[in-house]
Structure formats: C-alpha cells, structure tokens
Amino acid sequence: MSVVMKFGGTSVQDAAAILRAAEIVRSRLHRAPAVVVSALSKVTDCLLAAARAAALGNREQSLAITLGLRERHYTAVSELLRAPIFTALHESLAAQFDALDDLLRGISALEELTPRTLDNVLSFGERLSSAMIAEAFRARGLQATHVDARSCISTDANHGNAVPDLARSAVALEKYIRPLLNAGEVPVLGGFIAATPSGITTTLGRGGSDFTAAIIGASLNSTDIEIWSDVDGMMTTDPRICPSARRIKTLTFEEAAELAYFGAKVLHPATLLPAVQKDIPVWVLNSANPACEGTRIIARAAPTSNPFKAIAAKTSITIVDIVATRMLMAHGFLESIFAVFARHRCPVDMVCTSEVSVSVTVDSTHAIPALAADLARLADVKYEGRKAILCLVGENIRGARGLAAQVFSAIPDVDIRMISQGASEINISFVIEEADVPRAVAQLHDRFFSEVDPEVFA
C-alpha cells in the first residue's frame, strides 16, 4: 500500500525547501510514496501575468516575466545539482522556457488568449518543477522517476477548471505509476495539470494539485494522502486574524470540506471527494516542521465537548437581491433565476428567500454587472459588494439547542445581513460587512475556543 505526498508551492519554493522535501520523502520510503508537486511558489501567478501581458500586445513585458522565472529555476538547479546532471537538466529547462517564450510571442502577435492557450501557459509551472525536483531527489539518493501527469490524469475539455475522468485516470495510473511503486521507485508528478483523451493540456483550477493527489490516492487505493504546506495543519481560524487560533488534530471529511469551501485555504474544496469515496485519511502537514502531527481528516472523528471545530471567513462576497412581487411563487421562476447564474458560470454560496424576494451571495470576482443585467429581464435587481461570509463548522451543531443564540450574542455590535444553517447541519453561516471580519472572528473565537477539548485541539 502506498502513500501519496503532495508538496505545495511554498514547500518547493527554492533549493532549501526542495531538500527538506527530499528528506521527508526519504522518511516515507518504507510506505512506497508517490509524490505530487506544485509549481514553485508564485510561479503560476507570474505565468498568468505573462499571458495577460502578451494578450494585450505587451510582448517585452511578458518575456521579461519569463526571464525572471528562467533565472529563478536556473539558480535552484545550480544549488541542487552538479555536473553533468546540472548541464543536462539546464538544457532541458532552457528548451521548455524557449517553448514558453515562443508561445507568448504567438499570443502577443494575435493579441488573443483563449482558455485552451492559457492552460498551456500555466502548465509550464508544474512541468518545470516536477522535472527539476525528480532530478534533485535522485541526486540525494532517492530512486525518483519523473512522470508527466498529463499521461495519467484525464479530463474533459473545460479549460481552466477541467473535470477529471476518474475511471480513465485510474487505468492510466495503474499503467504508469503502479509498476514504479512495485519496483521501489518514487514517481514524481506535477499537480494541477492534466490532458484530454486527445492529449490537449488542461488544468484542474487553482489549488488543483491537491485534487491531483487525491485522484492518485483513490486510484491506487493508498493508505494515506499527505498535503504538505507551510502551516502545521487546519486551524480553528486564520491565525493572522486571531493569534490565539489552535491546531485541530482531527476533522471529519464533511467538516473539512465546509471549511475549505468557506475560506480555509489550506485545502482545495474538491480535494476531498476522491478520498471520501475510498475512505482514505488526508493529512495536512508542515514541511518546515515535519515533527508536528498536523491535522488528520477522516470519515468519522471522535466526539468533542466543543460545539464548533473552526471558524472560516470568505471575503470578496457580493449580495444580489432579486425582487419580483408578482412572480416569486410562480411556477418555474426560481428555475429561471438560477438558469441565469448557470449561464454565467457563477456559483451561489448562500440563498435566502422571503415572500417577495430572493437574496443570494456570489464571489465578487465574477462579472456581477453582466449577471445583474440578465437577471433584470426577470425581476428588479440590486447588488452590494464588500461583504463576507462567516461560517462556524462542527458536527456538534446537530441537535444543539440555543447555539444560534450564543453565536449572535457573541457579536452584538456586528451587522448581520443574511443567515443560513446548511442542509448538512454542520455549519452556521451568515453575511457581514467585510470590514467587520477581524472583530467578529476574534469575538467568536474568544467565546467558543477559550477552553478546548485536548483530544481534538492542540
């Protein structure tokens, strides 16, 4: 049985971080590790900036960005490897950067950036890092083999947020990864990237390296999936907002998924789905502090005396109010409203209805004016930005009396705009002004986490 180890961007950001990752992998050799790596920290952001600059016709700006990336990768390689391996890998990386620059010149000439082309540009981050890290592992005595994830992870052609074909991917992973594990080798793959059945490069969306790890773990029936980042695990809230935040030792899949969706950025929300289906524990660990036991995410966690496990805040939220007095209860009206959101590929976080209106929250990064214009054909529409969703998550919410009263009495000076208790019965969510988030989180954390169960919280 194998373990899948995913190292995020900050865990492979430079030569020192990569060497730490190599030692962590060495400690797992007896468990047949398969390794998934992200692009070096911030590289994906730089590639996105380069692509957008090229699309605006700013070729020189675009190429200046990739020149900086080229030098950064060369520096890391020079610190990790010696000749002749250094020379060979340097030439390979140079060829990939040349191909990237040619692609950006083409985008600049056309001043057009399609989703398919953008996926191709963004894929270079993981293609470069995985090849480099595999060689660095080999130089440290690990029997590492680089595997192009595009040969193993198959998706549809929804560029930018492709949906994996789990059955097809499982067949390819058995073909390419299983023999390496059986031979005692360490496969190293880039996360985030995949391909259609016809071989066209796709990506799984931001944070998709976690998803890659979960797909591999589920396909290979791994014993554990380890997500290595720069934090000690899942926390009771964001420690940047609340320094008294505590590490959570154990979470359920359901709790972790709610927290991931509502702003806890340690995990990608979709990460857990393949793991849930196979009941594979997911660990959140710190590559800079590997001795810390981290957070274990499992199907069923031990009971705790605390009503909540964590508080998450999702900012940059817009409230959209839809009012149609004569049509609200008409057959098909709500269906028509949500069809508009579907056409704009705009997911809804919360929904509240009254006798004459429907209010929803959406991510402010979407084109809200265009969405509102389409909705205005059905009803009167208004929207307000700079809002946030606060979400308190915990299995103990189920059946707890008076808990909502305790929550809102803890923040009497905070204006509440919308309230929702999820159908999952493990979260209480509400909308507040974005500027009130630090104060509200601090007050709620002080109310519910001043005393904690030592079996569940560190």
Largest sheet: 8 strands, mixed
Give the integer mean of the pLDDT values: 91
DSSP summary: helix tally: 14
Oligomer state of the chains in this structure: single chain
Show unreliable segments. none
Question: Care to count the β-strands?
Answer: 16
Helical coverage, percent range: 25-40%
Radius of gyration: 24 Å
Beta fraction of the residues? Answer: 15-25%
Shape call: globular
End-to-end span in angstroms? 30 Å
H/E series: EHEHHHHEHHEEEHEEHHEEEHEEHEHEEH
In order across it, which strands form the biggest sheet?
A: 3-4-2-1-7-9-10-8
What is the structural class? alpha/beta
How does this model look, in words?
The protein is α/β, with parallel strands linked by helices. Helices cover 40% and strands 21% of the residues. It has 14 helices and 16 strands. It has helices spanning 15-26, 43-55, 59-80, 85-110, 115-139, 166-176, 178-182, 208-219, 253-261, 272-278, 333-343, 368-375, 403-409, 437-449; strands at residues 3-7, 33-37, 144-147, 186-190, 193-195, 201-203, 224-229, 250-252, 282-286, 295-298, 310-323, 348-353, 357-363, 380-393, 418-421, 427-433. The chain has an eight-stranded mixed sheet, sandwiched between helices. Strands 12-13-11-14-16-15 form a six-stranded antiparallel sheet. A hairpin with a 3-residue loop joins strand 12 and strand 13. Helix 2 packs antiparallel against helix 3 (59-80), helix 2 packs antiparallel against helix 5 (115-139) and helix 4 packs antiparallel against helix 5. The longest helix has 26 residues, at 85-110. The mean pLDDT is 91.
Q: What's the topology here?
A:
Blueprint lengths: L2 E5 L7 H12 L6 E5 L5 H13 L3 H22 L4 H26 L4 H25 L4 E4 L18 H11 L1 H5 L3 E5 L2 E3 L5 E3 L4 H12 L4 E6 L20 E3 H9 L10 H7 L3 E5 L8 E4 L11 E14 L9 H11 L4 E6 L3 E7 L4 H8 L4 E14 L9 H7 L8 E4 L5 E7 L3 H13 L9
Helix pairs in contact: 2-3, 2-4, 2-5, 3-4, 4-5, 6-8, 8-10
